[in-house]
Design brief:
single chain; 274 residues; alpha/beta; Rossmann fold; 8-stranded mixed β-sheet; 15 strands; globular; disordered N terminus
Length: 274
């Protein structure tokens, strides 16, 4: 590999992927990296990241979550992780959930999670790079990266710095066909990231009396959008109470219902991985 002077990350370029990649810690062996992204905030991207991670873990895989949404890190709360992570000068030790998912997030490094992170782009990007290079992930089958929404500096840094095997786009029905989703997908493709497909969150309601599926929006435009963008619909996640509280106990209590929803989605993700 040769040094790339034009690379925003100022690292080495992989000519095969036409991306500037940072070598990981030699003590780590991460087999697959999956990014989870959205065109904007508020569509449940972090919840989907956690659902995917937990489903993979329940199948017996070693799983980690890298919370790259530095400005809005919600992964620790969704996982029910409160213990602060520790480290040395060169190594950060990830936290771990009760079911063994390793997790790193800025909220696990700062004293008060309610305080805003008032950092500029380069510092944010540098922090995400450290989460990739300095964290002792060890052996992982899958590392899920909860990406920041939109086409931000940090999102670009992750795509340029981390060798992602695929990207999952999360949207909600009313935003699926929007320019915002299209911009994010096109950015990923321009950076040679394999877009695995789209997960439509809050896709429909299930009638509590008869179980009938109630669509809140017309799906015809969505089908056309997916065809035009050459995208796969990985699956739909309904608006159900079972996944409104994903903290440790809530997930265990509703695991059967959640797995029925997530099994086909995760199956499609794994089938589409290179």
């Amino acid at each position: 590999m040769d040094n790339c002077e034009s690379c925003p990350t100022n690292n080495q370029c992989s000519k095969e992927k036409d991306q500037c990649m940072i070598e990981n810690n030699p003590m780590n062996n991460i087999k697959h990296v999956i990014g989870v992204m959205s065109g904007k905030g508020g569509v449940g991207k972090s919840s989907v990241s956690v659902l995917i991670a937990k489903n993979l873990k329940s199948k017996g895989f070693n799983v980690g979550i890298l919370d790259a949404d530095i400005s809005g890190p919600s992964i620790p709360r969704l996982l029910g992780v409160k213990e602060k992570i520790k480290g040395t000068k060169d190594i950060i030790f990830p936290a771990e959930t009760k079911d063994g998912i390793k997790v790193v997030s800025l909220n696990l490094l700062i004293e008060d999670e309610m305080q805003p992170v008032i950092w500029r782009g380069p510092i944010l990007s540098g922090t995400v790079k450290q989460f990739w290079t300095n964290v002792l992930w060890e052996e992982l089958d899958y590392l899920i990266i909860d990406m920041p929404p939109g086409t931000t500096d940090v999102a670009i840094t992750v795509m340029q710095s981390v060798p992602m095997n695929g990207l999952v786009m999360v949207s909600v029905p009313q935003d699926m066909v929007s320019m915002i989703v299209g911009k994010s997908i096109n950015m990923a493709r321009k950076m040679n990231i394999n877009v695995l497909g789209v997960v439509e969150n809050m896709s429909y309601l299930s009638c509590p009396e008869c179980g009938k599926k109630v669509n809140l929006f017309n799906g015809n435009n969505t089908k056309q959008f997916l065809e035009d963008m050459k995208l796969t619909l990985l699956g739909e996640i309904p608006m159900v109470q079972a996944i409104s509280h994903l903290e440790e106990d809530g997930y265990i209590k509703n695991k059967e219902i959640i797995d029925q929803i997530l099994n086909p989605i995760v199956g499609n993700i794994l089938n589409n991985l290179k």
